[in-house]
Design goal:
A hairpin with a 2-residue loop joins strand 5 and strand 6. Strands 1, 2, 3, 4, 5 and 6 form a six-stranded antiparallel sheet that branches. By secondary structure, the protein is of the alpha+beta class. Helices cover 32% and strands 30% of the residues. The protein is globular. The longest helix is centred in the N-terminal third of the chain and has 15 residues.
Length: 122
């Protein structure tokens, strides 16, 4: 069993997309704990709506590659447009931040909101 913390971000209809994402995720993995969702300013391209960010701790038997595929699939189900700029607006952004106790997303070190959310669910 793998214990994973996933970073959550949305700035397009977040109040609808985050609950939908959680519903889909709960049907696929064991959700252990969800952080508070917080509003943050956009990183990179600042001329866009604020983001709603948080984290979710899960248990899963999936390996990292399969979990990544699942997360991308959930993003796609929620209308993620991958043709725009890297730091552009998005309906859903899901990233593996911690895998079995090891920080695997370097953004953790530069985004205080991510550190706060991860800490909250550990």
């Amino acid at each position: 069993m793998n214990t994973v913390i996933i970073g959550i971000g949305s700035n397009i209809d977040a109040e609808t997309n985050i609950p939908k994402m959680m519903e889909i995720l709960r049907a696929k993995v064991e959700v252990v704990k969800v952080s508070e969702m917080i509003q943050t300013k956009a990183v990179g391209i600042v001329d866009q709506a604020d983001y709603t960010n948080g984290a979710v701790k899960i248990n899963t038997e999936r390996n990292r590659k399969d979990l990544t595929k699942l997360l991308k699939s959930i993003e796609d189900q929620l209308g993620r447009d991958r043709t725009g700029p890297k730091f552009g607006p998005r309906t859903m952004d899901l990233d593996i931040v911690v895998w079995n106790g090891e920080i695997v997303d370097q953004d953790y070190y530069t985004r205080d909101f991510l550190q706060k959310s991860v800490e909250e669910v550990q």
